[in-house]
Amino acid sequence: MAGKRIRVKAPATVSNLSCGFDVLGLALDEPFDVVDLELTDTGTVVIDDIRGCGRLSRDPEQNVVGVVLKAASAMAGSSTGFRVSIEKGIRPGSGIGSSGASAAAAAFGANLLLGEKFTSSEMVRLAMEGERLASGSAHADNVAPALLGGIILVRSYEPLDIVRLHVPPELYCVVIHPETEIKTSVARGLLESQVPLTTAVRQWGNLAGLVAGLYREDYDLIGRSLIDFVAEPKRSVLIEGFDLVRSTAMECGALGAGISGSGPSVFALCRGGDSAAAVMKGMSEAMKSQGIGFDAYVSPVSRRGAQVW
Ligand code: HSE
């Protein structure tokens, strides 16, 4: 029904969780992006306004929200169109799923305006188109938790198989987001296309250990498993102060810590809110000592992803 409007938000996410490159991600409570959508019968997508970030394109072909809505309109029928305004609460190039949150909000909002036409899997696929534009790779480890909340495993991309994992009740996440930017495409370009078998064995041991730890609510096992032998060794050089911030998180009692997504944000998982507050304080002091401005967030794993706002 043309003229119908909706305002939705979708949260920042921490993807990879060290050992789960491209297959694991969790949703935070904040920060988040907000998207206002209006259904039209023009068959076009118009981006009226982008607030909170001056350098994103309003050309729908060059904007993650635009490409997601164009894909949604192609699936829904040729006269389906959208007008949209975007409020960025998550800075692009942050490593906490900025493009993923916008893409998830667009897919979620379009689905509601179209009478819940799409399945969860279809919404994830739509949002992945935004990631394809933003980074050249249609990964789902940010968009799936941004849409669905919780901790998500992408068991398979072809066919897409999204699995919601158990969230232990005391699990908290701390994120330090330095005022620097890393393009996901650049960070992906640093990775080898082949992984030696010995490295793969260590990585999938940790991945399985982390999933088992979540289900057993075994916080020590979760912590032991938060090690990345594949991406972090190549990418950490891009993040000034990474080793110090990570080691400080561990000294302050974090279960484990690593690069959030493709960086530069650094995340730590903690047991309980008090521990998370202490870890955030320590990580913040470590980042401050590097003379780099930053934002800090502490959040339980958010059970809700995209939602009406
Ligand atoms: N899994 C992706 C990567 C996340 O590490 O490149 C990017 O946000």
Q: In brief, what are we looking at here?
A:
With 309 residues, the chain is of the alpha+beta class.
> Fraction of residues in helices?
25-40%
Strand content: 25-35%
> Shape, please?
globular
Named CATH architecture of the largest domain: 2-Layer Sandwich
Describe the structure in your own words.
This protein is α+β, with helices and mostly antiparallel strands and 309 residues long. The chain has two domains: 5-165, Ribosomal Protein S5, domain 2 (2-Layer Sandwich), CATH 3.30.230.10; 171-300, 2-Layer Sandwich (Alpha-Beta Plaits), CATH 3.30.70. It has ten helices and eleven strands. The strands form two sheets. Strands 1, 2, 3, 4, 5, 6 and 11 form a seven-stranded mixed sheet that branches. A four-stranded antiparallel sheet has the order 8-9-7-10, with helices on both faces. Helix 1 packs parallel to helix 2 (98-113) and helix 2 (98-113) runs antiparallel to helix 3. It starts with a strand and ends with a strand. 52% of the residues are buried. The model has no long low-confidence stretch (mean pLDDT 97). The structure holds L-homoserine. Residues 15-16, 21-22, 139, 141-142, 184, 187-188, 231, 261-262 line the site of L-homoserine.
Chain-wise SSE layout:
Elements: E1 5-15, E2 24-40, E3 45-51, H1 64-76, E4 81-87, H2 98-113, H3 120-135, H4 143-148, E5 151-156, E6 161-165, E7 171-178, H5 184-189, H6 197-216, H7 219-225, H8 232-235, H9 242-251, E8 256-259, E9 266-271, H10 273-288, E10 294-300, E11 307-308
Parallel strand pairs: 3-4
Antiparallel strand pairs: 1-2, 1-11, 2-4, 2-5, 5-6, 7-9, 7-10, 8-9
Helix pairs in contact: 1-2, 1-3, 2-3, 6-7, 9-10
The structure holds L-homoserine (HSE).
